[in-house]
Design brief:
It is built from 12 helices and 18 strands. The longest helix has 18 residues. The two termini are about 15 Å apart.
């Protein structure tokens, strides 16, 4: 292999992760407390305290501890009343866990294209979608990578059309929009404590609501829908979705460190932003006037004219390296070679094989079947463009400045 600038580095001795759990010690004390009190199941002081603290932090009346963010999303769909055949407007650029619970209840996702200002659901497209699907009564939106969407604009559209908002704040705990915590904007909302999130329980999630009856219903459903009887009696389908008191102990120990984690993540974002000056890239954007992200993941998008040729299939990908240019695949492969973990941007849901027949709306209207053999053109597909040109960088808050500086040098070398 010919020597190039990107071959001049030595691998990191210890892997630099995308985003791994950052533990502090208090977690173990609350796990041990659960052990000694023998509250090892789905009831106990840890669950009660975590629900209280999270509800107070987010600014909602009720928080229900569940086994995962996905479990919370599923119960949110049920509480919202999504039924078989109902079309549901969903953020397009997200992880499939946002959308799968819609399908659990028989709903039919219709995907709303992304806007460039925040990489979240475009409120202009959402309004356009109601012109095409006036019957829709539910919206599932995401605050991607810890960055708040244009939440007031989306709420205004929803209210005009009498639609309910389910807010997937799984990635954005601690982020604020106009001074208000994400997770407090939806009619129902969820957060996640998955192992890579800003606060972790190793697993777990929460359903957030201001409706006490909804919270009680979620608690019932999450414990197999047991009725108030001296024996096991059931009048509804239930689920084994309740958070463990042991997992809640981990979350309880993590919560005091939320602001510290956010501050560390912000330093990483700003260090990347400064380190990439002069390169044909930009960071994942946010509304600097109205929002404060939690900076969960730092991402970049390569300028269109600085992209080398890259072709992706359903599994494989190839590219042609060019001087002065690069692409996500080249950068990610180079980072991996030096023992650092990056990730592609979430592949938009309307591109996924499982949803290839679902509706997709862009600013130009229906985003499906927009070209033919006789008329050149098509529509702007923002999500696809960000997916093609973007990537997630190592964003672990235990990464040292020296390690991050080398990550920056490695990325810069890909353009040399």
């Amino acid at each position: 292999m010919a020597f190039t600038q990107k071959n001049k580095f030595t691998p990191f001795k210890n892997k630099v992760w995308l985003s791994s759990p950052t533990m502090h010690g208090e977690e173990l004390s609350w796990i041990t407390d659960a052990y000694h009190k023998n509250w090892m199941s789905t009831v106990g002081e840890n669950i009660n305290e975590v629900e209280r603290v999270v509800a107070d932090k987010i600014g909602v009346k009720c928080a229900v501890g569940l086994s995962a963010g996905t479990s919370a999303l599923h119960l949110a769909m049920k509480l919202a009343g999504i039924k078989r055949g109902d079309k549901v407007f969903c953020s397009d650029m997200t992880f499939s866990a946002t959308v799968n619970p819609v399908v659990y209840e028989g709903g039919v996702p219709v995907f709303i294209d992304t806007e460039r200002d925040t990489w979240n659901m475009d409120p202009v497209v959402l309004e356009k979608a109601f012109e095409l699907y006036p019957e829709v009564k539910h919206i599932v939106l995401v605050n991607l990578y810890g960055t708040p969407a244009k939440l007031d604009e989306i709420r205004a559209v929803a209210d005009r059309h009498g639609a309910t908002i389910i807010e997937d704040a799984a990635e954005s705990m601690g982020a604020t929009y106009k001074g208000k915590q994400t997770g407090a904007f939806g009619d129902i909302a969820v957060i996640s404590f998955n192992g890579n999130k800003i606060i972790t329980g190793s697993s777990g999630g929460m359903l957030l609501t201001n409706d006490i009856a909804q919270a009680n219903k979620a608690r019932k459903w999450s414990t197999q829908s047991r009725e108030d009887a001296p024996w096991y009696q059931h009048e509804e389908v239930g689920y084994n979705y309740r958070m463990s008191n042991v997992i809640a102990g981990v979350v309880r120990g993590q919560l005091p460190h939320l602001e510290q984690h956010i501050a560390q993540k912000r330093v990483i974002y700003e260090r990347y932003k400064n380190g990439f000056k002069g390169l044909p890239v930009s960071m994942n954007p946010y509304d600097e006037i109205n929002s404060v992200p939690n900076f969960w993941l730092s991402c970049i998008i390569i300028d269109a004219d600085a992209m080398c040729k890259q072709v992706r299939g359903e599994r494989d990908v190839c590219y042609i390296s060019e001087k002065g240019k690069s692409c996500p695949t080249e950068i990610l492969e180079t980072l991996a070679k030096y023992n650092a973990e990056g990730r592609p941007i979430w592949k938009p849901m309307h591109m996924q094989p499982i949803f290839r027949m679902n509706g997709f709306v862009t600013r130009d209207g229906d985003g499906r079947g927009t070209t033919n053999a006789y008329i050149a053109g098509g529509v702007e597909d923002v999500g696809v463009d960000i997916f093609n040109r973007g990537l997630c960088l190592p964003s672990d808050n235990k990464m040292t400045e020296q390690e991050q500086d080398r990550i920056i040098e490695i990325v810069r070398a890909c353009f040399e």
